[in-house]
Amino acid sequence: MNPMPLNRREALMLGGAAALAATAAPRLAAAQTAAATTGPFKQPKLPFAESALAPTISAETVGLHYGKHHKAYFDTLNKLVPGTPYESMTLAEVVVKSATNKDTAIFNQAGQAWNHDLYWEQFTPGGPKAPQGQLAAAIADAFGDQAGLVKATTEAAGKVFGSGWVWLVADAGKLSLVGSSNADSPFAHGGQPLFGIDVWEHAYYLDYQNRRPDHVKAVLETIVNWSIVSDRLGA
Asked: If you average pLDDT over residues 79-98, what whole number do you get?
C-alpha cells in the first residue's frame, strides 16, 4: 500500500525529523539492537542499563517506564496500523500525518512512541555536564544561564495540567519552553524540540511521589547529555 502523500509543510517538518533521527541512530545502534516488537514499528532498546540514571531516576522507574509504558505505545500502534496507509510510513511521518488528520487513536500511540525515543536518547551517559558552545550561547540569550533554564523549565512543568511534557524548542536558533498535554509535542506541529521532560506521573512517582518540580530539576542538573541536546540544535 502506498503511503499518503505529504503536503509541503509536512515534508519540511519531516526533513528536520530526518536530521534529528540521524544524530540519534548511531548512538542507539552502537548501544543495543532493537527490542523485540511485532509489527512495522520497533521500540529501540535503551542506550544504557536500567540502573544507569539512579539515583535521579531509579532502575525500578526506568524498568516500568520503558518496559511497560513505552513498549505499550509501540505494541498498540502496531495493532492499529495494519491495512492503513500509516503501515508504510516511518514513525516520524505517522506522528505528523496523524496530527494533521486528527487521527487521535493513531496519534496518541505514535506521538508517545516518538516522544519517548527522544526522551531516552537524551540521557545516554557521557558528554559535558553543562551546555557548551552554540547551545550555551542560545541558553544564555533566552534564560541567562543554565540555572535560569533549570528554573524556567521547572516552572513550566508546574503549569502542565495533568499528564504531559515540557520541551526546549529551537526556532531559528532562538530557544523557548513549551508545555504539551498527553502525547502532543512541538514536533507534531512543525517545531524543533531539543529536549523533552516527561511529566506523566509514571515518569517520576515511584521516586518523587507528587514532587514533580524536584524531579524536573534533578533531571536537568544531573542526567541530561548536553552534547546530544547540542546536536539537535545543529540538526
From this structure: 97
